[in-house]
Design brief:
Number of strands: 48
Mean pLDDT: 89
Radius of gyration: 43 Å
Structural class: mainly beta
Shape: rod-shaped
Distance between the termini: 162 Å
Helix content: under 10%
Low-confidence stretches: none
Strand content: 25-35%
Number of helices: 1
């Protein structure tokens, strides 16, 4: 008499030894076989496509459709595959080939050999892309990398890299943004290491950090600081604030509101300094102007070196317009246009003017020379007007003839045929 399977007595249950007997129903009837024999057969059985029909613990199992794990999955060895490897939820597939998603949700993956490590809402449809994590990161070019962060974007530029941060962008081929916020690497092979609102616009440009700066022309560099602009080819601003380098091969070391506009000009530091002549230099201080070609201002305040190869070491409100002329220091000293190769060492309100060549004033107050090769050593209100004339010191002395000399005194004057000498006297005039 037939009996239902449900009416069979309940056995001892697993674990089984393998020698238990099971029923095998075939077309010819029902027979018995050992449990171990049945398992051996089933572990090697295949379907019509040659694929195994039963998963087993100690063999390489193949699955022909998606598998869902309702509990945790622990892998003690290597987990590998021949196609895409996807872990996460709400993943959008854009025809990926050998793509990988390590976790997270709402990602979009496409291209070939691309990886999204985790996070939320990261996206790439290109090949050889890596997005480590974070959220709302987008890679739109091949061979690019976004380490993490939020809202970072690599646009149509192969080889770009963003380390992390927020709202950073790479637009140039092989451009790099290390981190920070709202930074950009727009030029090819450009780099912005970090900071806020920085833009490496030109090719091969570099910004180390800071805030609201930009490196515009090819090879420009900003080390750091605030609101600096490196606008010339191969221009450099090391730091500071509100500094601008607009010409090629210019350099600003630091300080505030400095300007380097001359070709190969330099402002080392200070405030409100301008080097606008070719090869001009301002070392430091405040409110200096070095606008002559190869001119130099060392320091002080409000000095102007405007002549070719003019130099002012320091002081206050000194001006050199003459060619290859020099003021060491002091206040309100002047070498005017038309003067060549002349010097004022120091003092106040001294002046070399006219067509004087090789004139010199050592110091003092309100001294003047205008003759070629003329000199005033010091004193006050002295004048050496004759060629090769000399006043040693004193007050209101005038050497007006050629090769005239006044050693000192007061109100002495030579104005005759020249080659006169006057010692230390008072109110003496030679004709």
């Amino acid at each position: 008499m037939a009996i239902k399977i449900s009416q069979l007595p309940v056995g001892p249950g697993p674990p089984f030894q393998g020698d238990e007997v099971v029923a095998i129903v075939d077309t010819g009837g029902t027979s018995q076989t050992s449990l171990s024999s049945a398992m051996t057969y089933l572990s090697g059985a295949t379907d019509g496509d040659g694929m195994p029909i039963l998963a087993a613990r100690q063999k390489n199992n193949f699955f022909g459709c998606d598998q869902t794990m309702l509990a945790g999955l622990t892998v003690d060895g290597v987990l590998s595959g021949r196609g895409n490897f996807i872990i996460g939820t709400n993943i959008t597939y854009c025809a990926p080939t050998l793509g990988s998603v390590g976790g997270g949700t709402a990602h979009c993956i496409g291209g070939s050999h691309s990886t999204i490590g985790g996070g939320n809402n990261n996206r790439t449809c290109n090949s050889c892309v890596t997005i480590g994590g974070g959220c709302l990161n987008v890679a739109e070019s091949d061979s690019t990398t976004i380490g993490g962060g939020q809202g970072n974007r690599i646009e149509t530029c192969n080889g770009g890299t963003i380390g992390g941060g927020c709202s950073n962008k790479v637009e140039g081929a092989a451009g790099v943004v290390g981190g920070g916020h709202t930074n950009a690497a727009a030029g090819e092979y450009s780099t912005t290491a970090g900071g806020y609102q920085l833009s490496a616009i030109g090719d091969f440009t570099s910004i180390g950090g800071g805030i609201s700066g930009c490196a515009i022309k090819e090879g420009a560099t900003i080390g750091g600081g605030s609101m600096n602009v490196a606008g010339g080819i191969n221009s450099t601003i090391a730091g500071g604030a509100l500094n601008t380098a607009t010409n090629s091969d210019t350099f600003i070391g630091g300080g505030q509101s400095n300007l380097a506009t001359g070709l190969s000009s330099v402002v080392a530091g200070g405030r409100l300094n301008c080097a606008c002549g070719t090869g001009s230099i301002v070392v430091g201080g405040e409110c200096h102007l070095s606008c002559g070609t190869y001119s130099f201002v060392g320091g002080g305040c409000n000095n102007s070196a405007c002549g070719l190869a003019a130099a002012i070491v320091g002081g206050l409100a000194n001006t050199v317009v003459g060619l290859s002329s020099f003021i060491g220091g002091g206040q309100c000293n002047t070498i005017t246009s038309g003067v060549c190769n002349s010097s004022i060492v120091g003092g106040k309100e001294n002046c070399i003017y006219g067509s004087c060549n090789y004139g010199a004033i050592g110091g003092g107050y309100a001294n003047k020379t205008c003759g070629e090769g003329s000199a005033v050593a010091g004193g006050t209100s002295n004048l050496a007007a004759g060629s090769y004339s000399f006043v040693g010191g004193g007050h209101t002395n005038c050497a007006l003839g050629v090769c005239d000399t006044i050693a000192g005194g007061r109100s002495n004057c030579t104005c005759g045929c020249g080659h006169n000498f006057m010692g230390v006297r008072y109110q003496r005039r030679w004709y």
